[in-house]
Specification:
Layout lengths: L2 H17 L9 E5 L5 E3 L15 E3 L5 E3 L7 H10 L5 E5 L2 H7 L15 H6 L5 E2 L7 H10 L5 E4 L3 E6 L2 H24 L8 H8 L7
Parallel strand pairs: 6-7
Antiparallel strand pairs: 1-2, 1-5, 2-3, 3-4, 5-8, 7-8
The structure holds zinc ion.
Zinc ion binds next to loops.
C-alpha cells in the first residue's frame, strides 16, 4: 500500500467505527506503522468520524512529530506497543462502551479480563490483561502498557478503554470489534443471572492453532 492508501484507509475505518458508535466525540485514537518505520496517527483532539487524510500525523518511533497536525496525546501508548511487538503494524485504542465498562469492574482479573466463551474471540484476542489505572497520556501509563504488550493481541487500560493491535489496520479494527462484541455479550450473560459454559482449556488449546496472529 502507498502512504496515500494508508491515509485513505485510516480515514475510512475511523469513520466506520465512529458511525457505528465505537467512539464518541474526540475519544479514541488509531495509528499504523508505515513501511519506512514511521508512525501515522490520528491528530490530537480529532474525532474518528471526521478525519482528513492530509491532517493525519506522522511521527518517528521516538515520538518526534514529522508532519501533519500534532499527533494524539496517547501516541506514547501506541509507541510502547510497537516497540514491544515488532510484528504489530497497527494499534486501535478506543473508549468503547462495553470494553470500557469491563475495564472499570473492581473484580476483573488483571491477568485476563474475559474468560473465553466463544471460539472467534479466542482466535482474535485470546488473553486480555488489564493495565492498572494511570492518568491518560502519561509516561507511567505507557511504561505499564509496555510491560504487558509484548505477547498479547489486546489489553485493557483500567477505567479507560481498550488497546488492540494487528498485523494490519484491518486486522486491528476487526479484533477491536470482536473484543467490543464479546464484552457486550459478557454483560448480557452476567445480567441474565444464568450460568455460563466457558470454553474448556482443551477447546481453547485446540483453537490456539488457528490463531490469526500467533503470539
Ligand atoms: Zn484513551
Amino acid at each position: 500500500m502507498t502512504e496515500m492508501e494508508h491515509r485513505t484507509q485510516l480515514v475510512e475505518l475511523g469513520a466506520s467505527l465512529f458511525v457505528r458508535g465505537y467512539s464518541v466525540g474526540s475519544a479514541g485514537n488509531i495509528s499504523l506503522r508505515l513501511p519506512d518505520g514511521n508512525i501515522m496517527a490520528t491528530p490530537t483532539n480529532s474525532c474518528l468520524g471526521r478525519l482528513f487524510a492530509r491532517d493525519l500525523s506522522l511521527a518517528d518511533m521516538e515520538g518526534k512529530h514529522l508532519s501533519g497536525l500534532a499527533p494524539t496525546r496517547e501516541l506514547p501508548l501506541h509507541l510502547a506497543v510497537y516497540k514491544a511487538q515488532p510484528d504489530c503494524n497497527a494499534v486501535v485504542h478506543l473508549h468503547s462502551s462495553y470494553a470500557t465498562a469491563l475495564s472499570a469492574l473492581a473484580d476483573v482479573d488483571p491477568e485476563n479480563a474475559l474468560t473465553p466463551f466463544t471460539p472467534y474471540y479466542v482466535m482474535k484476542i485470546g488473553r486480555l490483561p488489564v493495565v492498572p489505572y494511570y492518568k491518560p497520556g502519561t509516561r507511567e501509563l505507557s511504561a505499564a502498557a509496555a510491560k504487558i504488550a509484548g505477547n498479547v493481541n489486546a489489553f485493557l487500560l483500567a477505567n479507560h478503554g481498550s488497546v488492540v493491535c494487528g498485523a494490519s489496520l484491518v486486522d486491528a479494527v476487526n479484533s477491536t470489534e470482536e473484543l467490543e462484541e464479546t464484552a457486550k455479550l459478557y454483560f448480557l450473560l452476567r445480567s441474565s443471572g444464568r450460568p455460563v459454559r466457558h470454553l474448556t482449556a482443551e477447546e481453547i488449546a485446540d483453537l490456539a492453532s488457528h490463531k490469526e496472529v500467533p503470539r
